[in-house]
Design goal:
The protein has 426 residues and is of the alpha/beta class. It has twelve helices and 15 strands.
C-alpha cells in the first residue's frame, strides 16, 4: 500500500477521538491513533496541543526508561534524524513512568555532554501513564510509527529508527519492519522460558534449550540462583552467535573463519538477518553445578550449531602483531590534578584497567590481526588520575599523551588465546 506524502495538506486525517477521563484501550498496527492531549510536552511547536496538530507528518514515538543504556545512547542519533527531516517527521521521546523533575535530574547526572544536549533538544513527554494504556510494552526502546493519515503503521524496536527507513516512509513506501511483540503478563527473567506443558505432567527439572529470535523478550542476560528449588538458571536473550560464544568462553577475542554467520554489525539494521541469526539460550542445572555452566553452555553451542550451521567454536593459540603498553619510567611523579579542561572530549583514566581498555578500543582489530597487550607490571586496579582525548586517530599522537604519565606503547609480537568460530572439521 502506497502512503500519501506528507505535503498533501488537503488529505482528510482520521484521528480517533477519545474521552480523556476513561482508560484507553491498547492500539495495534492498523489502528487509528487516538487524538489525545500532549500533556506537558516539551520542544514541540507552540500550536501543538494534541496529536492531530501534527497532521501531515510522520510521527515516531520513542518509549524509553531511566537505566536503559541503549535508549540513552540513541538520543544523538534520534536528534540527527529530527534535524534531517524537520517539518515532515516528528519524533517524541516518552518516559511515561517518571515526571519531568526526575527525568531532568537523571539527565543532568549523565557525563556525556552530547547525550545531555541531544535529549534537551528532542520533543519529550514524561509522567503520563495514558501512553502505557495505549501502547503497553515490557522492554524498551519501544517505537511506534504513526503515518500522516493518523494510522499506527508499525511497532518496532529501536534499531529501525534510521535514516533509510524514515526517508523511505516519507517517499510514500510501505513500511516493512519487523513487529515488536512484547510478552505482557509473563516475567521471562523470573519464570524462565520453559514451563510445565500440562497440569498432569511434572515440570521440567533440568534442561538446556535454544530458541529463535523473538522481539518481545528484549535482549540481554539474566542469571537466577534459587536456593529454594536448589537450581541455577541462565537466560541469554536474542544475542548473536559470537556474543553467545563470548559469554560461554569468557574470551573477548574472537576470530570468525566461516561464512555461515554474518558480521555482528550487519544485524543492527537488517530485520531478516535478526530473525535468522539472533538466538536465545537458556540453561537450568542444579545449583551445585553453577561453576560449570559456561562449560556446559559451550558444549551446547557446539552441538546445536554443528547441526544448524556446521560450525564450531574452539580455543586456539594464535600469533598477533601487538601494541604493548609498558612503563618507561617511574610513575610516582603522576600529576594528581585532573586535566579535563585542556582536552575537548576527555576520557577519564582512573586505573590501569581503564588505560588498557581504552587503548584496546582505539587500536585493537582482530580482523587485521592486531591486538593490544598490557605489560606494565602493575595491578589492573592501580590508581591513575588523568584524561585522554576520545578522538585520537593515530598511535604516535596517543603515545605523546601517555608518555607524560610514565607509559609508552611498543610494537612487537605476542601469542595469545583466542576463540575461533570456524566450519566444523569432519
Amino acid at each position: 500500500m502506497k502512503l500519501l506524502l506528507s505535503f498533501i495538506f488537503f488529505v482528510c486525517i482520521c484521528w480517533q477521538l477519545e474521552a480523556q477521563t476513561s482508560k484507553f484501550e491498547s492500539l495495534n498496527v492498523g489502528d487509528e491513533m487516538m487524538n489525545i492531549e500532549l500533556k506537558n510536552a516539551r520542544n514541540l511547536p507552540q500550536h501543538v496541543k494534541k496529536i492531530s496538530d501534527l497532521q501531515g507528518q510522520w510521527i515516531l514515538l520513542d518509549f524509553w526508561s531511566i537505566g536503559c543504556v541503549s535508549c540513552i545512547q540513541a538520543f544523538p542519533k534520534l536528534q540527527a534524524l529530527q534535524k534531517e527531516f524537520q517539518g515532515r517527521f516528528q519524533l517524541i521521546v516518552i518516559n511515561p513512568d517518571k515526571p519531568d523533575s526526575l527525568v531532568d535530574h537523571y539527565i543532568n547526572t549523565l557525563k556525556n555532554d552530547e547525550i545531555r544536549k541531544s535529549y534537551r533538544s528532542l520533543a519529550s513527554l514524561n509522567g503520563d501513564h495514558v501512553w502505557l494504556d495505549l501502547f503497553p510494552h515490557r522492554t524498551v526502546p519501544h517505537h511506534i510509527w504513526i503515518s500522516p493519515q493518523g494510522k499506527v503503521e508499525a511497532i518496532t524496536n529501536g534499531s529501525n529508527a534510521n535514516y533509510e527507513n524514515v526517508k523511505s516512509a516519507l517517499e510514500g513506501n510501505e513500511l516493512k519492519l519487523l513487529k515488536k511483540e512484547d510478552i505482557i503478563g509473563y516475567n521471562v527473567s523470573k519464570n524462565g522460558l520453559i514451563k510445565q506443558g500440562h497440569d498432569k505432567l511434572p515440570a521440567p527439572k533440568y534442561y538446556s534449550v535454544f530458541m529463535p529470535f523473538h522481539s518481545g523478550i528484549g535482549s540481554g542476560t539474566y542469571i537466577n540462583e534459587d536456593s529454594i528449588s536448589n537450581t541455577f538458571r541462565c537466560t541469554h536473550r536474542n544475542l548473536s552467535i559470537p556474543r553467545l560464544y563470548k559469554l560461554a568462553s569468557l574470551q573477548k577475542r574472537i576470530v570468525i573463519e566461516t561464512d555461515n554467520i554474518p558480521k555482528t554489525e550487519s544485524l543492527i539494521k537488517n530485520d531478516s538477518l535478526k530473525l535468522k541469526n539472533l538466538l536465545t539460550y537458556e540453561l537450568l542445572i542444579p545449583l551445585s553445578q553453577k561453576s560449570n555452566y559456561r562449560h556446559l553452555m559451550m558444549q551446547d553451542l557446539n552441538r546445536y550449531l554443528a547441526m544448524e550451521r556446521n560450525i564450531e567454536g574452539v580455543l586456539e593459540q594464535r600469533d598477533f602483531t601487538s601494541y604493548i603498553i609498558v612503563r618507561n619510567k617511574n610513575i610516582s611523579h603522576l600529576d594528581k590534578k585532573n586535566n579535563f579542561k585542556t582536552i575537548k572530549k576527555p576520557v577519564s583514566i582512573k586505573n590501569i584497567e581503564a588505560l588498557y581498555s581504552f587503548t584496546q578500543y582505539l587500536f585493537e582489530n582482530i580482523d587485521q590481526k592486531r591486538i593490544v597487550i598490557e605489560e606494565t607490571g602493575l595491578s589492573e586496579h592501580y590508581p591513575l588520575n588523568f584524561s585522554l582525548p576520545e578522538d585520537v586517530k593515530d598511535l604516535d599522537t596517543f603515545r605523546r599523551y601517555i608518555l607524560k604519565y610514565g607509559f609508552d606503547i611498543i610494537e612487537g609480537s605476542r601469542t595469545v588465546e583466542v576463540l575461533v568460530i570456524r566450519d566444523k572439521i569432519k
